[in-house]
Amino acid sequence: MNNSHFKIITIIFLLLTLEVYSQQDPQYTQYMYNTMSVNPAYVGSRGHTTITALGRTQWVGVDGAPDTQTLSYDTPLGYSGVGLGVNLTNDNIGPSSEIYLDVNVSYTVRTSDEGNLAFGLKLGGRHLNIDWSKGISENPDILFESNVNKFLPTIGAGIYYHKPKWYMGVAVPNILRTTHYDDTFNGGDEAEERLHFFLIGGYVFDLSERIKFKPAALAKVVNGAPISIDLSANVLFNEKFRVGLAWRWDDSISALLGLQASKGLHIGFAYDLTTTNYRNYNSGTYELMLRYEIFKPNVLKSPRFF
């Protein structure tokens, strides 16, 4: 793609940031297998140590399209009901790059024989760097003269309730109204990040002894913006193979595949196909997920589809 096309895309991204930062929090098609990324209260809920790596390449074929890598670790702290998690994310889009580092803590209260209610807190921050010169080599406009390099603190919170067959939760990834741009356009314009609310839910149906079906949903609510809704349906065969479909409202449809390669290793893959007119300019989005679980000795694994 030539520089003029790249510049057009960059301007589009910039216009979006006048209301809220160019890409909100990084989005994942396989969020349901890395739930800590959307709700800190999920930390430790699996009952054992979990390490997850996820890479997402969005809009293949478009220079400057979003590209994200995430590495996370979460574990329960003994039998205290406390969970601890760390999440490191590298997110690139157009001329901007952002590195997130968050620490998540949860506390779980047993509400019944099978019910658990968890409260989560996220503390951390991210380093934002925007270099407008990237991809613009001829006659850069004054619009692109002021680069951005700053640290933005993050404080988030969430509530998560789960039973063996279903779960639901709500989270605010960042309660701070941080400002992303200061005097960028010599007019004192600033873009302030608005509160986001993430709502998740899912249910596992036993279709037979060997087949499980799980529909799930994620809704992202932001004041002044359309609600973003992700719907998915996955089928698990013999606790080993997983296939599914997902749909993101007014954005894309996705195919999902998963393999339990060993007792502790799960491999997931997703392919998103854009449903808007923008599909004519890219070859889709690819996402690869690796999740490794470390089980306690002499403790049987309790099958979980979430």
Automatic annotation (TrEMBL):
It holds the Pfam family PorP_SprF. It comes from the Bacteria. InterPro entries: PorP/SprF_Bacteroidetes. NCBIfam families: T9SS_PorP_fam. This is Type IX secretion system membrane protein PorP/SprF. It comes from Tenacibaculum aiptasiae.
